[in-house]
Amino acid sequence: MGETATFYQMVHTLDYEDVDIVIDPKEQFEFYQRWLKSLGG
């Protein structure tokens, strides 16, 4: 803690994903609702 992260410690959150891509907005919204509930809200 308090140290600069190295390249190998960084999380690649913007990597391209070509498998399991969600296109349906309804499916995205349902996932969001489940995620909110998992947080206790």
Portion of residues in beta strands equals under 5%
Largest sheet composition: none
Radius of gyration (CA) equals 16 Å
Please, how many helices? 1
Distance between the termini: 30 Å
Tell me the helix content.
Answer: 25-40%
Q: Provide the succession of SSEs.
A: H
Shape: flat
Which structural class matches the secondary elements? mainly alpha
Number of separate strands: 0
Flag low-confidence runs. none
The average pLDDT is: 81
Give me the secondary-structure topology:
Layout: H1 25-38
Summarize the structure in short.
The chain has 41 residues and is an all-alpha fold.
Task: Note down, in words, how this protein is organized.
With 41 residues, this protein is mostly helical. The chain is built from one helix and no strands. The longest helix has 14 residues, at 25-38.
Essential attributes:
single chain; 41 residues; mainly alpha; flat
